[in-house]
Amino acid sequence: IVAISQVDKIGEIDGLYTQKNIFSIRMQLITMVSLGVALDRQQGLVMRLLAVPFVLMTAGLVLQAESATALLLAGSSIVVMAAAWLIWTNASRVSHLLSLTALMIGGVVAIGALILFNLPNNTFFYDGLFALGKAATLTNRTVLWADAARISEQRPWLGVGAAGFWTPSNGAAEAILAYSHKSPGTRFSFLSVYYEGLVHLGRIGLVFIIFQIVWIVQSALRNWLRTSGMAEALLLLVAISTAVVSFTESYLFGVIEISIVLFLIAGISTVADKAKFQKVLAPPPPMPAPQQTPPPTPTPPPPPAAPHTHPQNPVPTTPPPPPPKPP
Questions:
Q1: What percent helix, strand, coil does the chain show, rounded to 5?
Q2: Within 10 A of 174 (CB to CB), how many other CB atoms are there?
Q3: DSSP 3-state assignment of 299?
């Protein structure tokens, strides 16, 4: 990764990628995966040691790329995965301690959010953007989103169709490319999955996009709460980070690549229960041995018939012999 990365004319690391945000999001993804392998106790020692240099290298590349979204996601992912490794996996071994820990963490976060948003003259958001060298328009994103909302009103329910807006014959698309300092005919986006879906698929398609993202995140969350493993924690972080990035990037609306594949795996892997999979994949039970029926017991011969007696002669008489057969 270091070998293919170079510094371009504006001092941003892009590597083989065409834009710094794409590069930084990929490095942030590798940081999460490497950290998950390094902290997973079920992995071998050699594999865990090999993952440590990748954590340090990719985290440094994310920091040098100066992408606010990737930097926040990488930092929060490291903190969350370290907390899951130190606290969550150990708390799952004690009865009801896991629920108590979740309630305490949720309470602290809620109290902190209430204090933060109720402070007078709160400028933390803009101060953070200024520290990262970003403008209040989020690198011209708010202007693009306003244009997307205005364009979507022309066909609000079904949109213009998939890949139907960013075409060279569309004057509105060429105007957006002009003030965004892009070459004519460049493949561009509204830098938001939701505005991209609103323009191309309309309000009906936007409902399905939101449903997909919410379903995958909640499925990954339920799977992690059930197992409390590092692999499940990694898939949950991938799902959450992809959902967060969907507000400021349009990756989920593009081609299938590694981050989208991991996002889909995070939801699909929780569809079936592990016990059901083991039941399906287990070999069939052996057939029971046929029961041997005992041989039939021979029936005793009937008792001999009693000799005939004449009613007036108490002496028993035998029947006369049969006549001889003719020759």
A1: 55, 0, 40
A2: 16
A3: coil
**251 DSSP assignment:** G
Between CA 108 and CA 114 the distance in angstroms is 10
Beta bridge partners of 220: none
Look up residue 255 and give its two tokens: 């081609």
Does 224 or 138 have the greater pLDDT score? 224
What is the structure's pLDDT at 64?
80
Query: With bands split at pLDDT 50, 70 and 90, how would you rate the model's confidence at 76?
Result: confident
What phi and psi values does residue 316 have, to the nearest 5 degrees?
A: -65, 140
Q: At 182, phi and psi to the nearest 5?
A: -110, 155
Residues near 178 by beta carbon (within 8 Å), at least 6 away in sequence: 184
How many Å apart are CA 290 and CA 273, to the nearest integer? Answer: 35
Collapse the DSSP code of 254 into the 3-class scheme (helix H, G, I; strand E, B; otherwise coil) and give the result: coil
Q: 109-168 pLDDT, tens per residue?
A: 788 777 776 767 666 666 666 666 666 677 788 999 999 999 999 999 999 998 889 988
| Rounded average pLDDT over 81-108 | 72
Per-residue pLDDT, 7: 47
Closest to 30 in 3D by CA, of 52, 9, 10: 52
The rounded distance, in Å, linking the Cα atoms of 35 and 77 is 9
DSSP element (H, E) containing 52: helix 45-65
Q: How many separate helices (H) and strands (E) can be counted in the chain?
A: 12, 0
